[in-house]
């Protein structure tokens, strides 16, 4: 990222809604030069670690399951992180409006680092799952806060570079996750896939504390740091968290045959989730358009969802989240189960997808460096995702690795990277400063929410094929274990294993066909972001009066 000049610092201040009119009472000076670079790098580093943790466990699941002697329950090591990672993105961005950007980010770092350490030192599988759940809270904060703070300290004319940095960081994190998981598990112990985050956390916190601008001691904010904490929408946060996590939990557990679809646990989870969704939208509607509690801002203002291009962009990113996580998590498993690859080679086979994601992330931001072409980029990106998913669904179910899958991965990854960077930049340019935090939080959460539902649907598809095509081959006990975890395939005879392999390959094709249909809907949503006169890159947004107590620096 290019350093800012004093004039660029003014550009930053001119559209930093929370700091516009009273920035002098909040921070002693605008960020520029080496401090800006260090802070951006620190946030990008946190984003990198958070993304790595979404997939690093995928290639270590077999080792972890064998270590604890429970290959079935071990899948919760991945799911626990994804649930909290998905559920807290919007909560962190809105919480930072109440307690401050720095404070919210440090809380995220502490959660991430402390419970990474706990995960690495876990003595039981239940402890590991619990620590991963709490680690995901920190990862969610690191993921979402970079979208908020980065846009507030980056000059508008460098939005393209910032969006490119974000897209490439997400892609590189996705690249490193499976590879690091495979290398560490092969060369050492699985515990180090979590332990290495502890020293990284110390570096992240230290760099922020050293470089973050200090508030003036005579400001009301400095004297009373929790003064505006009561304005945080706690009820909305709780309702959103319960609605999203219970839905994913029910789909995943029923799909994995841990509970029957008509069991009390699944019916209760789905019913409570539905009630929470209704209550959530009713509550935020009241806060957005009615006479809510004085000073309280909805965790997600409906005005964002009801305006273009942000509303359609959130829908598009939600739909493209399905193939994103299915590819990142399930494709390495396909390489291992169908093609007999080691965890390390499974990560290597995934490189075309991940490298093209990095390329797309960089190109997506660079395209709109001078002119706002984010909508055009997003429409093109969703078309690439549609094409990539369609091609991936045609991969044969033979045990021999079809080299064409590398080209299909490249197309899918390029579209995914372009989508990430273009939507991030679009939200920055299209929203008023006081709404950017909520918009970026919604985008972050929608992406992971869509991906989590996608993984649950993939599990449902796989287990349906297992039940229908292997019922006459495997015993009921073997079928039940296989439905809950594919790691139990190692316990089968060679002939039974070959049958399961064919079913898994066919199941992956079905999963990608479903992603193709959803990606087509994503293209339609992306076209809704088109504006004949989109916000300009060069011109700062018009000043907006914002209560400076809500955002502290």
Automatic annotation (TrEMBL):
It is a multi-pass membrane protein. The keyword Transmembrane applies. It comes from the Eukaryota. Residues 1-26 are annotated as: Disordered. The keyword DNA repair does not apply. InterPro entries: MFS (IPR011701), MFS_dom (IPR020846), MFS_trans_sf (IPR036259). Signal peptide: none annotated. Keywords: Membrane, Transmembrane, Transmembrane helix. One of its GO terms (cellular component) is plasma membrane. Pfam families: MFS_1 (PF07690). It is found in: Membrane. The chain crosses the membrane at residues 36-62, 74-92, 104-122, 128-150, 162-180, 192-212, 232-252, 264-289, 310-332, 344-366, 378-396, 408-430. Residues 39-537 form the Major facilitator superfamily (MFS) profile domain. One of its GO terms (molecular function) is transmembrane transporter activity. This is MFS multidrug transporter. It comes from Talaromyces proteolyticus.
């Amino acid at each position: 990222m290019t350093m800012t000049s004093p004039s660029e610092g003014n550009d930053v201040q001119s559209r930093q809604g929370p700091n516009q009119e009273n920035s002098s009472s909040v921070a002693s000076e605008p960020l520029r030069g080496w401090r800006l670079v260090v802070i951006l790098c620190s946030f990008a580093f946190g984003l990198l670690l958070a993304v790595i943790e979404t997939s690093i466990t995928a290639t270590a699941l077999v080792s972890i399951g064998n270590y604890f002697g429970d290959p079935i329950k071990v899948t919760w090591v991945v799911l626990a992180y994804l649930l909290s990672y998905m559920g807290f993105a919007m909560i962190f961005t809105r919480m930072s409006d109440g307690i401050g950007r720095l404070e919210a980010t440090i809380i995220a770092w502490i959660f991430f680092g402390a419970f990474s350490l706990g995960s690495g030192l876990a003595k039981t599988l239940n402890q590991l799952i619990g620590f991963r759940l709490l680690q995901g809270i920190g990862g969610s904060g690191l993921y979402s806060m970079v979208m908020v703070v980065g846009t507030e300290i980056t000059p508008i004319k460098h939005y393209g570079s910032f969006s490119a940095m974000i897209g490439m960081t997400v892609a590189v994190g996705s690249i490193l996750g499976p590879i690091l998981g495979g290398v560490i598990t092969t060369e050492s112990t699985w515990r180090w896939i979590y332990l290495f985050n502890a020293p990284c956390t110390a570096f992240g916190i230290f760099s922020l504390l050293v470089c973050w601008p200090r508030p003036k001691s005579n400001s009301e904010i400095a004297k009373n740091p929790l003064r505006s904490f009561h304005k945080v929408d706690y009820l909305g946060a709780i309702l959103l968290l319960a609605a999203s996590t219970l839905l994913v939990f029910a789909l995943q557990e029923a799909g994995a045959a841990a509970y029957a679809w008509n069991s009390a646990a699944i019916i209760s989870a789905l019913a409570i989730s539905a009630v929470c969704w209704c209550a959530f939208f009713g509550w935020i509607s009241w806060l957005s358009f009615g006479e809510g509690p004085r000073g309280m801002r909805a965790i997600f203002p409906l005005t964002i969802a009801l305006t273009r291009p942000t509303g359609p962009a959130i829908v598009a990113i939600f739909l493209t989240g399905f193939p994103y996580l299915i590819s990142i998590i399930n494709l390495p498993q396909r390489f291992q189960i169908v093609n007999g690859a080691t965890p390390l080679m499974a990560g290597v086979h995934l490189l075309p997808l991940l490298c093209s994601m990095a390329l797309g992330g960089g190109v997506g931001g660079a395209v709109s460096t001078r002119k706002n072409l984010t909508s055009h980029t997003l429409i093109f990106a969703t078309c690439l995702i549609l094409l990539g998913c369609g091609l991936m669904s045609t991969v044969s179910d033979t045990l021999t690795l079809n080299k064409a899958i590398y080209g299909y991965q490249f197309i899918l990854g390029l579209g995914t990277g372009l989508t990430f960077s273009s939507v991030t930049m679009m939200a920055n340019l299209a929203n008023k400063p006081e709404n950017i935090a909520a918009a970026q939080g919604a985008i972050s959460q929608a992406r992971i929410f869509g991906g989590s539902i996608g993984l649950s649907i993939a599990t449902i598809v796989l287990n349906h094929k297992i039940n229908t095509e292997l019922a006459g081959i495997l015993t009921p006990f073997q079928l039940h274990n296989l439905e809950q975890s594919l790691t139990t395939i190692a316990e089968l005879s060679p002939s039974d294993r070959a049958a399961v392999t064919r079913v898994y390959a066919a199941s992956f094709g079905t999963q990608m066909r479903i992603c193709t249909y959803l990606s087509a809907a994503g293209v339609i949503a992306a076209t809704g972001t088109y504006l004949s006169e989109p916000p300009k890159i060069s011109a700062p947004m018009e000043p907006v009066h914002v209560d400076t107590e809500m955002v502290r620096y």
